[in-house]
Amino acid sequence: MYKYKLLVTARSFAKYDAEPIKRLEAHSIEVVRPSISGPFDEAGLIKVIETAGQMDALMVGNDDVTDEVIQKLLPRTKIISRYGIGIDNIDVQAAAKSGIAVTNTPGANDKSVADLAMGFVISCARSLPQQMMSVQEGSWDRKTGVELDGKVLGIIGMGRIGKGLARRARAFGMKVIGFDKYWDVAFAEGNEIAFKSIEEILRVSDFVSLHVPATEETENLINEASLATMKRGASIINTARGELIDEKALADAVKTKRIKAAAVDVTRNEPPVGSPLLGVADILITPHIGANTEDAGKSMSTIAADNVIDMLIDGRCANRVG
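Now predict its structure.
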């Protein structure tokens, strides 16, 4: 007989290894999943919660955990465990007011996202997706690319993922410059990374990669005005949040060759139905796969499960963010 109940909507939780479920069950925590797959918007998540009934914990992926959703969790739920790092899809303030802890999984997917960002840099430099598709379609139209050695990579947001990308780029001989509100001087000096303002990064970089959260301050960070200041022929990488980019402005900039290429793993709406980014030859879009590796999945599953155990059993958790 289980003492606690955990509703899991994160689709990849324990997908590659059943050990996290065993750990939860060993602590008398029952794992319940919805009959349909998310991610869920507010209405969808409320319906799932109403169907599941009262629970002690909720584990979510990119589902919309609004104030209305949080009210449906009362009075029993003690923790919302985010399967991932970003918490902008969770109303953390509403959760705190309701006495519900919010946790995430720091460090679990950094390497996977940094790998993808580096792959995007290479893809933009050599037009890899376009050239592969060209051959598949029977053409032999070879596009001329650029070498990465000596090129400038500007990283906006030098947290764990930004640092991981910087290390990878340095191995390719790239010059790395960066911006972060909380600049890590020791890391920057040890990896020969110069601090620059966002404005200067946009102005001098051959490649710009975004690694900041979606906030009021970063909304449309890449817009018509900022694109106009960028080095002609530069490329933009976004593996962070779709809200960072004005999609129409980026599409127009790539169409007019002001910007050479763009590669995005995140869009404002997912899937990006009707997005102006669709159908633009030099814009690569992937379906939010940054953390979608076996390694990251195993790590996120373990940490997300342990967060639930820590909060329900001990009443505290090192990864609590709200």
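The first strand starts at residue 4 and ends at 8.
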